[in-house]
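Purpose: get a first structural picture of the assembly so the mutagenesis plan has something to point at.
Setup: three entries, given in the order below. No constraints added.
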Amino acid sequence: MTTLLRVEIVQTPLALDLLVVFVGAISGGLVAVVRGYDVAGVVSLAIATGIGGSMLRDVLLNQLPVALDNPWYLATALGGATLVFFFAGTLQRMGAVVLIADALLLGLYGIVGAEKAIANGLELLPAILLGLITTIGGGALRDVLTGRTPEVFEKGELYAIAALAGVLVFVGLDRLDVSLTIAVVAGTAVTFATRIGAWRRG
Amino acid sequence: MTTLLRVEIVQTPLALDLLVVFVGAISGGLVAVVRGYDVAGVVSLAIATGIGGSMLRDVLLNQLPVALDNPWYLATALGGATLVFFFAGTLQRMGAVVLIADALLLGLYGIVGAEKAIANGLELLPAILLGLITTIGGGALRDVLTGRTPEVFEKGELYAIAALAGVLVFVGLDRLDVSLTIAVVAGTAVTFATRIGAWRRG
Amino acid sequence: MTTLLRVEIVQTPLALDLLVVFVGAISGGLVAVVRGYDVAGVVSLAIATGIGGSMLRDVLLNQLPVALDNPWYLATALGGATLVFFFAGTLQRMGAVVLIADALLLGLYGIVGAEKAIANGLELLPAILLGLITTIGGGALRDVLTGRTPEVFEKGELYAIAALAGVLVFVGLDRLDVSLTIAVVAGTAVTFATRIGAWRRG
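Result (structure tokens, whole complex):
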């Protein structure tokens, strides 16, 4: 019963997955614009950032990546890249909106990743790692592809810790047999609060 | 019927695959020589550049990489590395030959990659991405392994766009039920012309 | 019979695998400390270095990574990271111990990786490559993630060559039907001697 519910919540929210891809693609595309890359660079970084995390997760789970199985993932990443190409200036001025969207999705997507790992029979510790890879992997791939140290490794970056906190809260509540919805909401909220708190304190 | 033909053309040209590995290994090995690496570096970069693209493609398709299944891939990459080791100077003077071979294979190998993805049931958009990863992945891996931004992302690089143009022409003609041979030749020609044109204009 | 024996030796030494993870995690964590990363960085690099090699090997073999299937791998990497976090200074003063442990495991783990590849039906050349990826992959991943050229590619680095020598000796003796134990010991000894010899000559 519980397993069925879990599989359900992992597979249902295509719209959420696509939202993550969209926000990731925009953030990746903007990085490419800042660094002066041309169309090919913007599109490549938008795709890598948008679908890289779920692709790494699925490759590690030894499955065909959902981002290749369902063409909407790539279409959404291309949509984000197009938006960046035509409205880079506007998007950069909307930095706070992108940050808030990113902070919300950071926790939610880590939880979705951990859930998928658990639904595939992994134990807690590997499932937590896969959740983190899912939610942080896209940005890390973007940084590696542009020859930078992934931001998550640099001193003072609370990004990874915020993501981890949310996944831990989710997994902990899930173990305590709290309802799935509450666990997801609580985990996402913890990540969001940690991330925004760290950002406001500079 | 069509599917059978497709699978056939994807699996037949081992000689072509090995030619791609050979040219890739030479180009990767030469990069290592230019940067002053020793034997281990030349061999590693030759292998990574030669088989990296098809390896990434197969890992993403959730299959055992053909470059590991068939030992001729590695043997060919080692052959390319050996050639670089003994005749680096000559090969560098043959830069135009390597460039032309590379431009020819760039389109052809992207098409082979897209075909393999389609033969494995992927839809168009992911198949196009996999074609690009197949043909560009080796060089990108080489650059990431040597701590550089992959050249394909840098401004003015028409490499990725040339590869994309050929794959799009191929996929489009294939959809229009043009004969497979014509689609392959046309796609390869478009990539070749774009690539050489960009190179001649500097 | 032989195949059964092989599979046995590949799957038995969990303690050895965990020792490799432990030493790798410590070396990765120390690199993070030297570069001034914070907790997230130390933990990430310890995990990447500790389990990266076997993860790459298993992904390439198209299997669920053993480091995700068995939670002790991650637990061990976290143990190494914790040790680094509290005793970085002491560990750095124990540089020679870490070097010797690393030199011993370098050969042994390459042999385990090659064995696993052979047990999965790969031919010699790809099996040798997979052995090298298993034993060198973690450190290479650590360097790529921190934006450096993997040390194995740089001039004068005998690391890869020492690992290769041991794997070749093992594979050669194995082919000659020498007992598995002797082949493993001889291969490990060759790598150890090459590595320590290169280090002593500076």
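Confidence is low (pLDDT under 50) at residues 1-10 of chain A.
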